[in-house]
Amino acid sequence: LHSDVDKGDGKVKYVLSGEGATSIFTIDENTGDIHATKRLDREAQAYYTLQAQAVDRLTNLPVEPRSEFVVKVQDINDNEPKFLDGPYLAGVPEMSPLGTMVVQVAATDADDPTYGNSARVVYSIIHGQPYFSVEPKTGVIRTALPNMDRETRDQYVLVIQAKDMVGQMGGLSGTTSVTVTLTDVNDNPPRFTHRNYQYTVLESLPVQSVVARIKAADADTGSNAEMDYRIMDSDGPGMFNITTDEGHTRWGHHPSEDPMSLILTRKPLDFETKSGFSLRIEATNRNIDSNFLSLGPFSDITSVKVTVEDVNEPPVFSTPLSRMFVSEDAKVGSSIGRVSAHDPDTTNNAIRYSIDRNTDLERFFNVDALSGVISTAKALDREANSVHNLTIFAIETQDPTQIGKGISLITVQDINDNAPVFAIDYETVLCENAMPGQVIQTISAVDKDEPLNGHRFYFALAAPVAGNLNFTLRDNKDNTASILTKRGGFRRREQPVYRLPVLIVDSGSPALSSTNTLSVRVCDCDSDGVALSCGAVAYTATGLSTGALLAILGCIITLLVMVLLIVTMRRRRKEPLILEEERDIRENIVRYDDEGGGEEDTEAFDMVTLRNLNVIRDPNVRRDVTPDTPTFFHYPSTTRPSYKSLPDNVVFREFIWERLKDADVDPSAPPYDSLQTYAFEGSGSVAESLSSLESLSTDSDQNYDYLSNWGPRFKKLADLYGNSDGTSVFS
């Protein structure tokens, strides 16, 4: 910059301001020269607007007005083309014709398109020839070869280059990748891997079972590989069916695998009828593309041979369900019908028949093992069971594990073997004010039999009362009858109940009859005929005779005497603690609520023989107690001091000794160890042995060895007393 005012004497100074001043651009304040301090990038900023001014160096006052100028950055080719959308993925159908468009790519160049050729781009293919080509100006990629086959190669990776400067030498370039996938078309027909398939199955195979699995291969994928299977012809019409297992789930294959056809049975297979079948199976594509019909036909045919293998089958009944009829009065052993079964195998083994007794628990029927004839084994009663559902077993004689089953439905036909009876138990009420000819009861009957034409009952009064003067019967001809009065004036005092025998006859052949008694009670009724009271009228007693009173008094006195005798006898007799029926000479623990005691005597033997015979008997012992047991101690008659006046240890000892002496003289005490409960507490004393056996004399010369000869019931006593060495058992 230069100002006209500047004379070159250094009085003028140049100042720069605006975009990039001092940072990008600087000015020489003496000369006004502007310099760029950094490398400029047009793609970052193409223009800069600056202001310049000349000012007085001393006063800083402007010597000229401010001036504005623009710095434009001129472009150079410093940016290569870039594919902003790359890398690319594209697809094209296989077998496409030459020049089919695949995809269009586009590259951009940041250089100035208006200046030179820096931004003018051309495209070329670096990798992917000769299969594909690219248009230089548009970037459109097309197929360069016709009829590319996906089954041969299904994917191609192309490298596309974009170069500026119109592709001339020195231009910059950029590249991108384009992955081209050939999509499938239905250009391959299905083909079976084998021309003939062989399968062997058992004749016992259930219906709808898989007998064969076949599959036609198709090089295509997806819907283009879908196919349908059908049976074109077979020497067993209607025996088989074919279906497509889309996911192979029945056989454990992964669902993504190609579908497989399954041949299933529609009818049971029988080796004896036909041992093999031949089928022709056709597989056809579902979705056929008309553009590729010339590559067809899009179907294939194979043969399947199914061989049926024989197995040992159970016998088969000619009639799985047979219906038979037998009369209710058939005699035992009567033939009812015959079942028949045969061995379906070629061996044709002999058959034996039997009845499943779970279906004939009461064994009403038998079946002949060889002929299959069913006969009665018991008398039948249709009223108890009218239909018998029998399961018949047919068993091979050579292989008893082969068992066939058949059903025999035996219906018992009715005969007239039950007489009619009253339908219910009638309670007939006759009012005392009943008028002659009044209906007092309507009766009906039931019969367990079931005649084909229905029931018809006839009613009449039994012969002994047919001419009675009180009642009459009228047959209503509809299986009911009415009971009517012949007179009035019935009185309870005279006769409270009338019993009327009624004869009922059925219409069977032969006819059966029964006599049923109808009880008629005479009752006092109100004006509406409602019974108020029935039965006999009680007569008022005027008094009792002297003889009757004496008889009653004698009975009372006799009862009182018997009661007094029983009480007296119970007082004189002390009952044993153990009941006689429960006597048992063994160790027992007996708990009772009395103090004292000792061994409990079960009276199984005489206590005297166990006592010391040399001890002098106490003359003061009571003689009125049975048995008369001697005592082993003489007790002084002096009165003992009160327990409260004795020390604690003495109190307890004295109490025990007193109870011990009571037990020794108790004839009901048992001669074995027992537990006695003493409801008495002591303190501070050491308890000695509580056994009453200590009271016995141990220095006696009595020999008790004979106790061991008395049997096991005296074994415990023999162990205690029968010591041959004389050692005391209490020491």
Question: What features would you highlight for this structure?
Answer:
single chain, 731 residues, mainly beta, 5-stranded mixed sheet, 3 helices, 39 strands, 7% helix, disordered C terminus
Structure description:
- Helix content is 7%, strand content 32%.
- It is mostly beta strands and 731 residues long.
- A hairpin with a 5-residue loop joins strand 9 (132-134) and strand 10 (140-143).
Strand content: 25-35%
Low-confidence stretches: 248-257, 577-583, 607-639, 694-698, 724-731
Number of helices: 3
Average of pLDDT: 80
- For the terminal residues, how far apart are their CA atoms? 150 Å
Shape: elongated
The main pleated sheet reads as: 5 strands, mixed
Structural class: mainly beta
* Rg: 65 Å
Helix content: under 10%
Q: Write down how many β-strands occur, each being a DSSP E stretch of 2 or more residues.
A: 39
Briefly characterize the structure.
The protein is mainly β and 731 residues long.
What layout of secondary structure does this protein have?
Layout: E1 12-18, E2 25-27, E3 34-36, E4 47-56, E5 67-72, E6 88-93, E7 101-104, E8 122-127, E9 132-134, E10 140-143, E11 155-163, E12 173-183, E13 191-192, E14 196-202, E15 210-214, E16 216-217, E17 227-234, E18 240-245, E19 260-265, E20 276-285, E21 299-309, E22 316-317, E23 321-327, E24 335-338, E25 341-342, E26 351-355, E27 365-367, E28 373-376, E29 387-396, E30 403-413, E31 421-422, E32 428-431, E33 439-446, E34 458-461, E35 471-475, E36 480-485, E37 497-505, E38 513-525, E39 531-534, H1 546-572, H2 648-664, H3 715-721
Parallel strand pairs: 6-12, 14-21, 23-30, 32-38
Antiparallel strand pairs: 1-4, 2-3, 4-5, 7-10, 8-11, 9-10, 11-12, 13-16, 15-19, 17-20, 18-19, 20-21, 22-25, 24-28, 26-29, 27-28, 29-30, 31-33, 33-36, 34-37, 35-36, 37-38, 38-39
